[in-house]
Specification:
single chain, 314 residues, alpha+beta, Aminopeptidase, 12-stranded mixed beta sheet, 9 helices, 12 strands, transferase, Acyl_CoA_acyltransferase, GNAT_dom
Amino acid sequence: MHLTEPIEIRPCRPDDLPRFAPLTAQGLAATLREGLTGAEQDRFCHLGLWLGDIPAGLLLSRRSSIVPGEQELLSVMVLPLLRRQHLALRLLEAFAARMKAEGRTRLATQWSERLPQGDAFAGLLTASGWRPAAKARLRMAFHVGERHDALPQHEMLMRQLERRGLIFKSLASLDAREEEGLSSATARLTACNALPVWADPRQWQDGLDREVSQALFNAAGESLGWLLAQHHATLGHWTLPCGWLSPSVHWHGALIAGMGELLTRLEEIRGPLSSLVLQPTTTEGAKVCRLLDSRFRPYAMWADSILESHKALG
């Protein structure tokens, strides 16, 4: 199709919502609404591409809550009849220019290796100056009742943990002293840059399931790590976005023991058919990723890899 109408790219407005809804994947409809009518609209940058009076393309993004200066690209879509006209490329270039003007230093995005036309999306990013796609994390989903087969040695690991003077406790069961110890440890580790940004439990409070999430303590009551579970009610599953242990815990079995405790608690409260999505990284958590892959992939309902790309805004 030959383009004859003038092209305009501008931030979406609340009254654009009904017209751009068809260009939004179902899972991102709430993100579109939140960016236009929510309480934190300044976190979002949703750009619409108009061809005359036709809403022809849409780009969704939000400011990262973890990486300072980073804007996350969530989606870029163009009407099927208008594809191969470089409209998506125009949206990406307008997005980069706007974010640079607003002081962002980096753009980033992630997508499933199973994304339809994923190769075309990766090529689009490369054409717009983004880094080549690379695997960022493994992702798999399974029913928590599968823990009995995936972790048959859980009780043995818990006994070994106890002999080492270590114990996992759910966040909901912590007393005031333990809560203070966990908070103090987080602040201290953050202050001395000993805690990775992604491991800060304050980043994962939305939907945090305190009944299921676990914290690790030694005999002196010192906090040495945590495994955090988030409940996504609308999606009907739990995720484990953050699992971190202090380098002073010289035993990888502690992480598997903590996973077993978290799964046990989830099964007790929500039942064996409750589903958990694991997303270990292939970079900082490469060893953990391989370990969880070998333990849980045989029982997964589905599994894929998450790809990522980024662009520096110099």
